[in-house]
């Protein structure tokens, strides 16, 4: 066993990794807690008192009795959530850029047997009118075309924005009116919560959310995702759906432990707040330069900027890492041939020094 | 966050947990290494140099270029292995007590679309003649009945025994003759290897194994399973099969790290050897008593014993934990009404003191 | 277009086809009615008044409001029936020789996502005690092993026998006690009904059957199968399940027409009665010979006989056609090496002359 | 059994059914041939000489050795075609209005496990440039997003148009360049062939088509669809895929018989030619009126016209039947609020008198 050669440093000795929040590792308090539960014996498959205690924390946090199921990946959380609310011939409405339709290799369709129907909307948010129109094409008796079965919103969105509470409420109303379930992909739930400065209850079931993918992996854990049911009816089959999906971990207490540390002392909110602040610092830094401009306003831990291509390449040469992002159709004429749209993601592990190093490299 | 209340101790202060090896936690060297990789940034989804380095370790260990895919659970390793060698209308031959057919809630069928065909045999091993007979009923043109597609052997078996190298070779020959793939469920691979005192290569591809579920979770890791392809043809679709199955972990380096520490300095073999020795000590202790007797010979980390029911209950009252095991049909007349068959599992974490405590409690 | 060269005659000019009732064609009254509906226009996909009228006939016949769905094959009827009563991680209990587990290439598992659990029993009927035992191994909280979801009985069975009304009632009670659904595979429903001399209602829902595969193909139609729901709850999703399964026929009226003629003037019962009588004649003929003996008593349109192998071969040389049948394990010592077990199936199209020709050929 | 009350006549005694070609029945020569094969006995499940003879006809017609599989519905033909060329994580490119994505309730996704990616293009044909762009987003290593696996073209399209031979060739080239298979949904294959006045070979494999759904149901049969493989590699698993999909008919000779009559003496081309001519007559009649105008040019058996809403309603009141059709986005400003877009479908059974009656009713 060698010392692992992670990419933690650039050649210059400065870390400038803004590729994704899943390039970060795990927070020390998560690690410490994992070490703590590593000793001794404990009932397997999530049946220990410890697992149950941690699961109960979710009911406190959400101010409501909820059913909680731990799984290993965000894709699993989304896919099994949708499987739990599936209808044969069902359609799931999501934003065109949603992770479920763009980045999960068909897992949501595979597990739920449903099809994803993309709905346009600016800045990663479904347009309410477009959503209504899309759903109208899938009435409950549409045997040939398929019927509406669920709506899924991503909070925070793939573009770093958030749905306002009113928007969630409106979508929740559309779901109720249409007799379908509302799922929230909360891979960056904490970042959205911090940005909106609201409570978990307000951002979910009080606005009509039935099932939530509660992600912790991107925000300081290494493998901790929870499916949270606000509507117990949908949870009935989940023990079997999860096991059949190979997502019931034998040493489940290690997921529980991550959540235990994550939720304690508001660590999760602090980490998300930090990531958001780092993004804000980056945003302000970019806004202050003459050559870069923000592609759209984001309020969480992702910044999208339009920069001269040469500048982006120079930054990469200096050790910076980030992804180019496809230019949305509606913005094509705002980005010149010599420019590129880049995505910069901060995380709990991003430091002010790293932000400054990037800003400097991008100049 | 409270100190987790794990079941690490009995009321008497003595730990006597022999329920399963997945009741153990994680070995300190695994934990230390997880902590080590927790800092810094690293490419996600298994694409970092570190992930690749660890994957390459498997080629050294197996003395052959292999393709390796990390997943999160043993059920995933088995199910996706079978999915990679699937044939529409295919049948998979396994022992009647195999994990894939008894304990995975239909996951192998769900992911592979194939049916499990149970084959009898004593002590957890398929009888070679029965396997031939079973396969003969599924010729390659059996459109109605289904066709043979794979054989899966569990090494070590669910009953603590192992297939000898000759037996694996014979089954490998049957697979080749039938034109089907051979999969090995190695959830307790290290325990079998230690028991047979052979090499990974000898126990697998040199005997005809095409795909292996290489389990590390039960033997000191907390979440580390690898699918190992000796035949690269079968690996072609696996990147997509794994992602669609929600088994591609974003912070995959944490699985890699577990394997890195697990495979370093033969830790895996030492831990398995220890577990086997603890089982042997337990076995000898039971054999020395007048009231208990061994149900069958086991050579790995599981001991099956027939004990008076009152004695078993007394031990439980003293804090011992273990499972009753269904009496195999062929043994019905060897177990009286006042007796029970119990399974006792040791692990890397089992101590001599715990073994003695259990022996004492069972007296 | 040539005159189709069907195998309707042996070399000797005598037809002796006892291979299966699906080797027969279609009854003239079925054909005439198909011709009748061929002209003109009619709403597609089963929405015409004619389709609805025929569907309503089932409610009369079963003396209860039922939901009816036409499909194209018996495998579809069984598989979609099971899909409609599926539970994730569910187990379906059937006889070891049942069509769903032996002859449908995994279609029931494919469509329902459930596993088939074979239950032994003599003469094609599940043993009640064995059924209870089998179900006890799949309690509703068995997340690892799977949970009971349905029982399926074949009436008449694959071995030409029938469950008595009391037996169906007993199985219906087991289903209710276990909280699972009861499905009946009625591929030879009419033959069973004729043999028991009872009513459709008595043989189904009054004994606890929830869903029925009502087969007409083997008994004079060429492509007419209906899924009949006695419990409307299970029918809710069926329109979508059927369409997604590619079993909604655009010119559905042609299936309706077959059923219309089939059910009119008790044609279906007359045809089944005829087939049963032909089998009885065959049975009596065989019993009267010295060399053949009946393998077990059958009461419908299938006769199983043990005959000297040379005699069977001689009959085949004379143009007779039938299948060898695997000797059940319990009968191994009753069939000598020089003998073979053969299955002889009669149908609506079988004539007395054909029966006599076969008896003569087998002498 | 009553005389079936089909909707063959309007109140006025004139039949004006232009809803769909699947509202028609079956051609007399199809019916006669079905009657012919109804007598006698024949091996089941498509294994008779007759079945094989008919299957061989396809090799003659396509001037190439092809593998042919009969199934019961067009949805089955499409879905199983795609299942035979599936790749895990695969994407199938089709027109936005294609039947596979709009009208089959997710069956293609259900059977193939792949996702449909809609590609825009005028008049029901994928735009070549858009197809290239769409495919470029699914490269073969796109584990997250998914990889291209197949293209499917509908010939004739859902909008009554056809791809020219050059267009098929261009798409075939894109398929080869991208390493994916090309499927053709030929639910109205004969209508397209008649319109293009070409040969089956020229319209398919000579232009790069690998698999064809050869539909006969809409054009004079009642239940006859064939999957035709030009590339034998893709056919390997089809016997099992078909059986597991519940699409292997026991009395398969009745499907064979339909094809036998359909293909004999060019009946299929004559029927399609007739339907196309009736559409042309209708088209010319509409063009000659002042109030109706053609929505776009069609060359097969579907006419799309924009008519005043009051006129459409008046025609319906007189007994005419047809569907409103959604106005394509690109045409929104060409259809006023008082107008409606209607689809008029002719078939082999449409008569000149019916066309004149409709024209008259629409005036």
TrEMBL record, chains A, B, C, D:
Pfam families: Beta_elim_lyase. Its cofactor is pyridoxal 5'-phosphate. Its EC number is 4.1.2.48. Keywords: Lyase, Pyridoxal phosphate. Gene3D superfamilies: Aspartate Aminotransferase, domain 1 (3.90.1150.10), Type I PLP-dependent aspartate aminotransferase-like (Major domain) (3.40.640.10). Residues 18-305 form the Aromatic amino acid beta-eliminating lyase/threonine aldolase domain. Transmembrane segments: none annotated. It catalyses: L-allo-threonine = acetaldehyde + glycine; L-threonine = acetaldehyde + glycine. It comes from the Bacteria. Catalyzes the cleavage of L-allo-threonine and L-threonine to glycine and acetaldehyde. Homotetramer. Belongs to the threonine aldolase family. This is L-threonine aldolase. It comes from Azospirillum endophyticum.
């Amino acid at each position: 066993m060698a010392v692992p050669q992670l990419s933690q440093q650039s050649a210059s000795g400065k870390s400038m990794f803004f590729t994704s929040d899943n390039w970060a590792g795990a927070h020390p308090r998560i690690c410490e807690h994992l070490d703590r539960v590593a000793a001794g014996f404990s009932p397997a498959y999530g049946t220990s008192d410890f697992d149950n205690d941690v699961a109960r924390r979710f009911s406190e946090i959400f101010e409501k009795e909820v059913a909680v199921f731990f799984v290993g990946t965000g894709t699993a959380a989304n896919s099994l959530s949708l499987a739990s609310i599936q209808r044969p011939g069902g359609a799931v409405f999501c934003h065109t850029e949603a992770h479920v339709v763009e980045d999960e290799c068909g897992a949501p369709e595979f597990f739920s047997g449903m099809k994803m129907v993309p709905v346009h909307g600016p800045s990663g948010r479904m347009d309410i009118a477009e959503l209504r129109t899309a759903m109208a094409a899938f009435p409950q008796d549409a045997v040939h075309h398929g019927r509406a079965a669920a709506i899924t919103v991503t909070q925070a969105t793939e573009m770093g924005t958030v749905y306002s509470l009113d928007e969630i409420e409106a979508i929740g109303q559309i779901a109720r009116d249409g007799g379908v379930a509302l799922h929230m992909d909360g891979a960056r739930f904490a970042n959205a919560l911090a940005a909106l400065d609201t409570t978990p209850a307000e951002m979910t079931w009080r606005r009509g959310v039935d099932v939530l993918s509660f992600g912790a992996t991107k925000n300081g854990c290494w493998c901790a995702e929870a499916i949270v049911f606000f509507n117990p009816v949908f949870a009935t089959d989940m023990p079997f759906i999860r096991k059949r999906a190979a997502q019931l971990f034998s040493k489940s207490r290690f997921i529980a432990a991550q959540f235990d540390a994550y939720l304690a002392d508001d660590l999760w909110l602090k980490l998300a707040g930090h990531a958001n602040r780092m993004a804000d610092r980056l945003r302000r830094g970019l806004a202050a330069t003459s050559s870069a401009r923000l592609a759209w306003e984001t309020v969480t831990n992702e910044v999208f900027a339009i920069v001269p291509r040469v500048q982006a390449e120079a930054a990469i040469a200096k050790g910076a890492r980030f992804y180019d992002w496809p230019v949305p159709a509606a913005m094509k004429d705002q980005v010149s041939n010599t420019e590129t749209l880049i995505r910069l993601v901060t995380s709990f592990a991003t430091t002010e020094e790293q932000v400054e190093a990037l800003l400097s490299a991008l100049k």
